[in-house]
Design goal:
single chain, alpha+beta, five-stranded antiparallel β-sheet, two-stranded antiparallel ribbon, 13 helices, 7 strands, 15% strand
């Protein structure tokens, strides 16, 4: 209950509730350095919503480029899983530019929408995922991804708040840095630096894609698909596979060669994921 100016009790209006919510979210990052802002925003979303964790992914065109922030290790792993597979609620939300709500990943229809992702998510203890596109000038620049350990749909109020969170995260992403010097240009540069920092997490993937392109004479998307397939077969992330390619511990063989050559791993001793033969 809120108290109005006349002293009577009344429920806050939707506009008042939204203003209060947005202020709480932006306040969570006030006074922090730019490097600390992303995780603070994710954790604030969790504190304000009936969810277990949250992450924000940055997109370029129709695909995810990087994880901008995550509230916890499971949220980070969930985001990385979608990046590795190239599929999941986050990817669907980007492609459709609309919210994608998966109430129960153990049952139809959600379990069948992204069967591989659903299996991986459930293995992490995740039962429900809600992906909301971040919009800027009519374009989708990323997603706010919420998860929880229990199944069930968001209530109409919870969904409204989640959409407000999406709006507030987008606003904060574009404007929070202005608080450091009040300069609009500095704000834009600050946002760019945050995005560059988040994309650095996947810089090894881009470098490894280039190596595979040269080694196997493949297009970039084909090279990434080969790396994703290898990551999935080994139960790893595409980032981990990329690292092995860059340090020459792994070399993907052409399909005509009947498989792959894993330099270094066999000599150094394997954990069984390569399936030594």
């Amino acid at each position: 209950m809120a108290v109005d100016g006349a002293g009577g009790d009344r429920e806050p209006s939707e506009a008042e509730e939204r203003a209060r919510f947005t202020e709480r979210l932006t306040a969570a990052a006030r006074g922090l350095s730019p490097d600390d802002v992303p995780q603070a925003l994710c954790r604030a979303c969790v504190a304000l919503l009936p969810v277990t964790g949250a992450s924000v992914s940055i997109a370029s065109g129709p695909t995810v480029r990087a994880t901008w922030c995550a509230s916890d290790s499971t949220a980070a792993r969930l985001a990385e899983t979608q990046y590795t597979l190239g599929d999941g609620p986050c990817q669907s939300a980007i492609e459709r530019a609309a919210a994608v709500l998966a109430d129960d990943l153990t049952k139809a229809p959600d379990a069948g929408r992204w069967p591989v992702f659903a299996h991986e998510a459930v293995e992490l203890g995740v039962r429900a995922v809600f992906s909301l596109p971040l919009g800027l000038g009519g374009a989708t620049i990323g997603t706010l991804d919420l998860y929880r350990h229990t199944p069930g749909a968001l209530s109409s109020r919870d969904l409204r708040i989640a959409l407000w969170a999406r709006d507030a995260v987008t606003f904060a992403l574009m404007n929070l840095h202005a608080g450091y010097d009040g300069d609009e240009r500095a704000s834009e540069e600050g946002v760019a630096s945050w995005m560059e920092a988040s994309e650095a997490d996947h810089s090894e993937v881009y470098q490894a894609v280039g190596m595979v392109m040269v080694q196997l004479n493949l297009a970039a998307e084909q090279a990434l698909d080969r790396m994703r397939a290898r990551a999935f077969a080994q139960g790893r992330t595409v980032t981990e596979v990329a690292h092995d390619i860059l340090v020459r511990a792994l070399r993907l063989g052409s399909e005509s060669e009947g498989g792959s050559e894993d330099a270094g791993r066999r000599d150094a001793g394997d954990d069984g994921r390569e399936g030594n033969r």
